[in-house]
Amino acid sequence: MDLVGACRAFVHVSDRGSFTLGAAAARIPQPVASRRVAALERHLGGRLFDRSTRRAVLTPFGREVLPAARRLILLAEDLEYDAERARHSPVRLALPEVCGTRDLAALGAAGRDAGLRLDFRRVPPAARADALRDRDVHAAVLAVPPDGAAWTVPLGVGAAARPGVRAVYLETLRVGRGQRPSTGRRLWIQPEDDVPHVRDPLLRLRDALGLGPAQIAVAPSLADAATEVLVSSDLLLCPAGQAEALGLYWCELGDPVLVRGYDLVAESTEESERLRDALADALAHCLDAAPSGVAAPGPRRTD
C-alpha cells in the first residue's frame, strides 16, 4: 500500500468534508481517493469516516490518527525536497593543479550533460588524497602507479632551447672534471610529479650516476620550475602538452621511462564508477591522457 498517498487522500478529504472535494485537492479521481482511504482503514484497523452521513465526518478513531497522518505527509515532502536538492548539489572534485581553465570548463560541461554539477578544487597530489579521506571533497583524481591507472600520461622533458636529440638521458647531466655538481644542469620535478612512482626512480638513477643531489630537484610550484628552465639550460619533467603550453621544446626521456597515472576515486565504488564513466573523455583531455583500454598517444615531439 502507498501509505503516504493514502494519508494524503485521508487528510484532504477530512479538511474539506467531502470525498469529491478532497480528491480534487489531492489531484486524483474520487474513486481513487475512496479506495485509498478504505485501504488505509484496513491497514490501521479502524474506520476513519462515518459513512452514515452525506458529509465525510471523522470518527473518533479518525480524529485520533489525523495529526500523525499530517506529520507523515510533511516528512514525506521534506524527504522529496532534500532528495531533489541532493541531486542538484555540486559534486566537489579534487583535481591536479595542471588542469587548465579551458579544459576544466569542458569537463564541467561534460558533467552537466551527465546531470552533474562539478565544483573543482585544484590541489597537489597528497592534498587530493587527504581531502578525499577527510571528506572535504566527494571525489578526487588521485596519482596512482600506471599499471593500476584509468588514465596515463607519458612524461618527457621540456627545455627552453631546441634539444637536437630524440631522447634526453640523465647521464648527460653529469658535470665535467673539475666542475662542481652544483653548477650542473638540473632536471626539475614539478609538484604534480612529486609522487613515489615518478620521483623515486629518478632519485635512484641520480645516485647511481653520481649526479649532485640538487641536479634532480622538486620545485615548489610549476611556475617556479618553468622559470628556472626558461632562464637556463635546465630541464622540466612534463608531458608534451604541458611543454607546448609553456612554450618549451619537448622530447622523450630516455631513461627511466616515466608515466603519470591517474584514477578517479569517490566515497563508494559505485560512485567512483559512475563519475569515471560520465567524465572519462573530458577528464582524459584535461589530464592530457588516454582512458584505460585506449592506447596512450605517442609522445608529441616539438623538437
Automatic annotation (TrEMBL):
HTH lysR-type domain boundaries: 1-59
Superkingdom of source: Bacteria
Swiss-Prot/TrEMBL keywords: DNA-binding, Transcription, Transcription regulation
InterPro entries xrefs: LysR_HTH_N, WH-like_DNA-bd_sf, WH_DNA-bd_sf
Keyword flag DNA-binding: yes
Protein family according to the UniProt entry: Belongs to the LysR transcriptional regulatory family.
Entry protein name: LysR family transcriptional regulator
